[in-house]
TrEMBL record:
InterPro entries: Aldolase_TIM, DapA-like. GO terms for molecular function: 4-hydroxy-tetrahydrodipicolinate synthase activity. SMART domains: DHDPS. This is Dihydrodipicolinate synthase family protein. PANTHER family: 4-HYDROXY-2-OXOGLUTARATE ALDOLASE, MITOCHONDRIAL (PTHR12128:SF66), DIHYDRODIPICOLINATE SYNTHASE (PTHR12128). Belongs to the DapA family.
Amino acid sequence: MATYRKTDAHAWAREHLTGCSAVTIPSYSADLKRLNEGGIRHDIELAIKFGFRYTLLCSEVAITPEENAQFTAWARETAGNRLGLFFHAAFGTLAENIEAVKLAEKAGADIVLLSYPPQFWPTTEQEIYDYTKTFCDATDLAVMLFPIPLWGFERVHPAGMQVELVRRLLNDCPNIVAIKSEQGFPLPAGICEMYHHFRDDVVISCPIEGDAIPLMSLMKLQFSGTSNTAWMGDYYPKAFEMARSGRWEEAMALYWSVNPARNANGAAAQSYAGGTGVLNRTMWKYQDWLAGFNGGPLRAPAMRVPDRLMKTLRQGLAASGLPVTSDPDSAFITGRFPC
């Protein structure tokens, strides 16, 4: 259960939604029939060790609402009050997302990242508004709005979710406390526009670390997430806190030191993201495995990771001086805590 009332969600977010968020992809047994408790608990502990303040419990991986609640319960039990937990509203329908969030609330989730299902195909802003408001009304948790081209809302407006729609949602959904601002990705237009209009109303998150640290010379950002940064170890929480506390030059020195890893990640993502609109969670799990997380198999349908990209990602970490496992890539699919 959340530690705040729905009516106090904004105040809670201003005080507590700080630092960086990792993404935790659930681990499964070798036969893929059940969750892997040992792998999940290990990954939560390592995210805390690296300095992350939150993690997204990723549900975009063929997991049921009931399994997601168990995933959440193990994460909460492991983390205690050391790590905030995002419920990932990425299930197949609005009704299923509402079912899943109610279970996650009881299991210990703190806040929601609101996604939109592939089957949701709006042609008007009213449809986007209705989906969003219906979900927000159904949960007592704080909600992070997530505008990004992945949803295909650009058929409605070039920004996907334009300023007027966001303003309407903020006015009518009092538990929307933050915006993960990626309109127009990979350009920074979304974060700039959302920050300009809404920084006094809600927490504005720039989840792209390659943008966030430079932009913090101009913007006061208190939170960054959720995104694929835990594979770089403790670099991002450390650099983000430096920039946030007035040590921006030091943060930029760290920023440039990890540029080989950043470039490797960009090259790998460009190999699939633009054409599919779907994130390769197997690749994200492999990247985390390189940094010491559990790894292990994912349920079908799951994208593959070509050997050439595995080599590129591993070399990027090594060239950046970041920790990287010496285990062979063949060990990834088994995982560090097989069951």
